[in-house]
User: Fold this.
Amino acid sequence: MNALNVIMGMVGPWQWVIIGIAILLLFGGKKIPELMRGLGSGIKEFKDASKEDETNESNNESKSIK
Assistant:
């Protein structure tokens, strides 16, 4: 079983509400959108880099076959 599924199963809906309130209190309402934008751009860069890596690997494999 995936570790994330185990963790998600252990945390109920009320715990998520408390976690959300704690994050709101720690960072404030103005900082959360900035944090989410940064997280989103980081994920996008990671996906782009992994796609480039897959493309480079497939090109190298096709060159070595020829």
Notes: The radius of gyration is 20 Å.
